[in-house]
Design brief:
The protein is mainly β and about 80 residues long. About 0% of the residues lie in helices and about 30% in strands. The chain has a five-stranded antiparallel sheet, with no helix packed on it. The N and C termini lie far apart (about 55 Å).
């Protein structure tokens, strides 16, 4: 049995179905609040050059999340800290 490949299939011009439009890659900013499906609530600690996001979930737990961010959801920009 072949392993599942996370690539999209190419669209044939003779297909009766419409081609899937790929979503643009999400981008996150440092300090942005996020929710991860498994890890819970966190805050973006840093963003690497290739778009990989490092998230701080508190208590020193850092998680590196690579694109595509299927389990990561933005909750909005962080409030200004005084």
């Amino acid at each position: 049995m072949l392993p599942y490949r996370a690539t999209t299939r190419r669209h044939l011009s003779t297909s009766p179905f419409k081609a899937q439009v790929s979503d643009s890659l999400k981008s996150y900013e440092v300090g942005e609040r996020v929710s991860h499906d498994r890890e819970g609530l966190g805050r973006v600690h840093s963003v690497e050059a290739d778009g990989t996001v490092i998230i701080d979930f508190g208590a020193g737990r850092l998680l590196r999340v690579v694109a595509p961010f299927s389990k990561l959801h933005s909750l909005g920009q962080a409030d200004a800290e005084a």
